Every structure is written in C-alpha cells, then in structure tokens.
Input
Amino acid sequence: MEQKIIKITLPDASTRIFEAGTSSMDIATSISAGLARNVLAAEVNGEVWDTARPIYTDATLKLLTWNDQNAQTTFWHSSAHLMAEALEALYPGVKLGIGPAIEKGFYYDVDFGDRDFSLTELEQIEKKMLELAKNNSVYSRKEVSKTEAFEYFSQKGDEYKLELIEGLQDGQITFYTQGSFVDLCKGPHIPHTGFIKAVKLLSVAGAYWRGDIKRKQMTRIYGITFPQAKELKEYLELLEEAKKRDHRKIGKELELFAFSENVGMGLPLWLPKGTALRERLESFLRKEQIKRGYSQVVSPHIGHKNLYITSGHYEKYGADSFQGIKTPNEGEEFMLKPMNCPHHCEMYKTKPRSYRDLPLRLAEFGTVYRYEQSGELHGLTRVRGFTQDDAHIFCRPDQVKFEFINVINLVLFVFNAFGFKDFTAQISLRDPDNKTKYVGSDENWEIAERQIQEAATETGLKTVTELGEAAFYGPKLDFMVKDALGRKWQLGTVQVDYNLPERFSLEYVGADNQKHRPVMIHRAPFGSMERFVAVLIEHCAGNFPLWLTPEQFAILPISEKYNDYAQEVLQALQAQELRGVVDERNEKIGRKIRDAEVSKVPFMLVVGEQEAASKTVAVRRKGQGDLGTMEIAAFISRLSSEVNQELTLV
RNA sequence: GCCGACGUAGCUCAGUGGUAGAGUGCUUCCUUGGUAAGGAAGAGGUCGUGGGUUCAAUCCCCAUCGUUGGCUCCA
Output
C-alpha cells in the first residue's frame, strides 16, 4: 500500500513529516532558502540522489553541499556531462565512452574518429563549457527500457554506449539530459549546470576502451571544476606547490641522484649525497633486522639461466626481460637477476634443514634489473635497476601466520619511523574467475589467503582487499603511500609463496623424521631503496630528519680570514661523526646563509672574529634563525642529542 | 608498448625561416663584509640526434633518442 505521508529523519535526528513524493530540494526549501540555493545532492537512506527525485518512503536524509565529499563527486560527474555537451557542440559526431568523477575532478573518454586531438584545443572546450553552464540547464533523470536505450544510441551511432547498455539490466537503465545532451548514466547529478562556475581541463591522455590494450585507444580528457573561481585558483596553486616537492626536482637540486642517456633510461646514478642518505637508510633497517632474527646475505647480480627456468620466471617473464648474457662457451647463458628469491632458495639448499632451524630469515639489499616498459619509467619510483631491501623467510606451515604478523609489525615500525601515517594496506588476492593466471594448488592458495587476512586482523591493520591483484605465485599484502601529486606507490610488501619451495624442491626434516616442504615469505619494508627515497623526499620536501640528512651543518666563515678556524671546527665535528661542509667562498655572510637555507641544511654555524677568539660557534637553525653562540663541545652535544632523540623515537 | 606534450648555456626558461638571448650558476678581479642574494668583467650553446623541404632550418615535415601527463603492465 502506498504511503501518503512520509517521515524524514535529518542528520540531527530530528524528524519532519512530508507528503509522499516530496523531493529533497523541496525539503531543503522548507528548511531555508539559503540551504536550497546551495544544495547539490542528497543522501537518501545512505544513497546519493538527485535533489529533484521524489521520495515516497520514510527516509533518513542528508542534504549535501559543496563541503561534502559526495557532493563534490556528484558535481564533478555532472561536469563530465557538461564537458561531453561541449564536445558534441564543438566536434559533431564524437563518440563517448565513459566519463566518471575521480578523486580530484573528472574525465571523459572520447573517440574523435580520424581526427587528431591536441592539447591546445582544451581552452575552447573550457570556454564552451562555461558558456553552456550559464544556461542553468537542469540535469533531468529518465528511466528508459533497454530497447529504448538501444534505439537512442543506435541512431546516434555510438557503439561504446551500446556496449555498455548490453551489460545492463532492463528496468535499471536511466538517461540524464541537460540542455541538448543525453547520456546513459545512473546518476546522480547536481540540480543544474549553473553551479559550475570555474573549469580547468588539465590534460589529455590515451586510454584503451575498457582498459583493454587490444581495443581502441580513446582520448581521455581530464578536468576539474568548482562552484567558485577562487577555489579553482587555490587548487591550481596547490598543484604548483605539490610540484615543488617532486623528488625528481629536489633530487636534482640537492644532488642526490641523476640519470644519463648514456647509461640508459631508468638506471639511476646515486650521487655522493644521495648515497650517504641511502646508506643510512640501509644501516637503519639492517640493524633493526638483526634484532628481529634476520641474517644478512649477499648474492651476485647475475644467475644462470637455468636458475630462472627452475623458478618459473623465465617462462613467465623471459621474453619481456633484459636478455641473456652470453659467454665464450657455446650455449652458456646468464640472466641479470630480476629478483633475489632464487638465489636465496639455493642458499637454503646448501645443507639439510631441520624443523628446529626454521624459520630461516635471509635478508639482502639485493640489486635487481627489470625491463620495465619505457612508458612506465618515472624518476626513482619506477626504474629498471633497483635495490630491494629484500628478505625471504623459510618457515614451517604452522609458523606462517606468526612470521607474517612479525613482518607487518616491522613494516609498521619503518613507516612510523618516517612518519608515513597516510598509507593504504592492500590485500591482493587471486582473481576467482581467472585461476589459470596463477600457479599452485587451490588448497595452498586458500590457506595462504586466509593466513594473510588473519594476520592483518590480528595486528589490527586496516586493509582493503583487491581481487586479481595477487602475484602469480601467491597472495600479498602491500603498503601503498601517495606521492606529492597523489599518485599511489607500493612501498612495503609481504608475499606468501608456496610455489618456489615446490619448484626448488626445498625440504626440511620434521619432528616425525619425515621430509616436509617449507613455506616462503617474500618481504620488503621499504620496497626498494629507490622508490622509498623518492617517496621520502616528497614526504618531507627534502627536509630530511637530522639523523638521515646528507649534510647536518654548514660552517659559514664571516670572511676568508676565518676559513682556518672553520676548518678547525669541521675537524672537531667530523671527529664526532657529524656530517657537514665549510662554505669557503668569497661571499658575504648573508649570501652564505641564504644558500645554506635554500639547500635545506639544518644547522648553520657562523664563525668570525669573536668565535675564533673564544673557540665557539654562532648557531643558526634552518627556518628558525639565530640560536646564539655556544662552545663547539656544546654544539656537538646538542646535535648529537637531537640525533639520538630522533633515533630513539623511531 | 600505446596516445598527448616537451627537448635552446651547468640549472630555470624566453625567442626567431636569414647560424641565438635572460636570470642564475661558473671563472677572474674588486671588496673582507655578522644572520636569506655586495660590485665589475669574462668564459659557456653544431638550439637532443639523423634525414627531408628551402637560396637559407634552432624554427616547417619525417624518423629516432630522451623526458613528461596518462593508459596498459609491474616477478
């Protein structure tokens, strides 16, 4: 029986009575005209609806304005429709794929046919969008049958939409219309285009239809919109600021690393300062791992081809890898190692193992080489030669969960040490519909997947689960951190592997005096030194913690007359294992300070006549200014204690 | 690998169908200065590379290499 009267519960738990069929816009109007002017969408029983959509049942209602995430998503989705309307106006006959909102903004995939599309055309599309927005065209929703939907887009000749309709269920198909533009869309949308006051189209990119490399590549146009011009300006400024944190820029400025065409793309050169930083990171982790029962090992950069045939990697990746290294011996071939695990398996096999020996934890800062697709290379985050902070834990099946938990704790320890609070822990499982992509028995996969999930639960780790993202040999838990521009990168990783022990016939003798197969856990808390340093740079904008920074201080003589004293100070500090330089240039002190500030040196030690006479230094802290004069020993103890404090915190 | 953009002095970038400019850095000189840029002079570029169009190409076209925004991939 149909209700005549409905009860609406608002977020403050108050309730109001309306006639059935009242829309959330009507309700907003009844509350206040100001609210009605600003409401973009509504959450009806937790689902985001158009404000014009009539409500026929009792419901909880939250009116969404620009400050709500869901309103912004709706706003940007509606903006994608507006862009599509502009595109149809400017380029008659374009075909449209999908046009969703994304985290910041929206995109639409467009097929321009034979036409080449260029960046320079974005501006006139923006103009057209703003012009159309001024029409205050209402986004109106219409339920259509599958047949009607087919008819409309057949007539229009848009095969992409037809394919989408194919996958939809009759009775659940809706069209949205604004102005002259009609789109297949389940909504919701903002009330009308007039809310869209500022538009910026940011970039164009090729994107395969339905993410399939074998299908047509469409032109994807990315953009963002705002209800106020001021907000767009602020957003663009934020983007500019983020670009200043880019590790590629800071890495060059601070002389941490470089690339050379002559060396080869994706092969980073670690310069002295970058190396100093990296080696500190390595010793930090090495020390921690020793505490946690790991043994450090070293293996060569190449391995016999047979090693990778045994491991299965040759079959899987051989054709897409750096190719084999030939020797003067006919038929002999080595491969650059793309991972460390096969070497570590061979280490395991150097002697018979007892169940009492397990777990065996072999750790190595192992440099590996992978022929990544050229289009994938990106600064230090995606390279072709990199060093993993790798380790393989060989354990009994009953130890897997415990070891897994310990690894999770190690990763969290590392992330905490560097202040990475905003990360995602992702459990990657098999694609249940495509099991042939993976090796290993169903049973082992199920055990491994369960153990990962249990370990995550028991450590209290908040995780997201992705199907189909597992490695081909086992499920994994990845820790992802965002870079300055919001791109996600996988740093820490933990992976269970039942496959390699099988392929390498690894065994241990159990308490029952029978042979058993160990389980392997691959893990890397940093992921790789390269990617970790990249993300760390962006995280701290090049202002590294004192214990890590390549140069902790710069000694700045007032004039050349005090260079000798500056050297004396340097000797004293270096004797205490503190790191820094003397700026002996023929420049004024103001200049030397500025340069040291710009190059992010934490401490500046000004030395002149007074300091030389009293064997002191005038200390200045980056970003804080003058801290006053102190004796060299006092500065040493201040710097050392700050370093120690950082290290006990981490 | 695919689509788009870019490649000019060590760095950041301007510019033009008639063989190139700024700022900064670098070198030298003057200055020896007390907490975010002292002054002057000078050196530096086959305009990524290879073809083509043209009387003439750094500029237009093609190819190639590299970088870059995405897509796909990622042991």
Notes: Residues 553-649 of chain A form a domain with the Rossmann fold fold (CATH 3.40.50.800). The longest strand of chain A covers residues 198-208. Residues 492 and 526 of chain A are 5 Å apart (CA to CA).
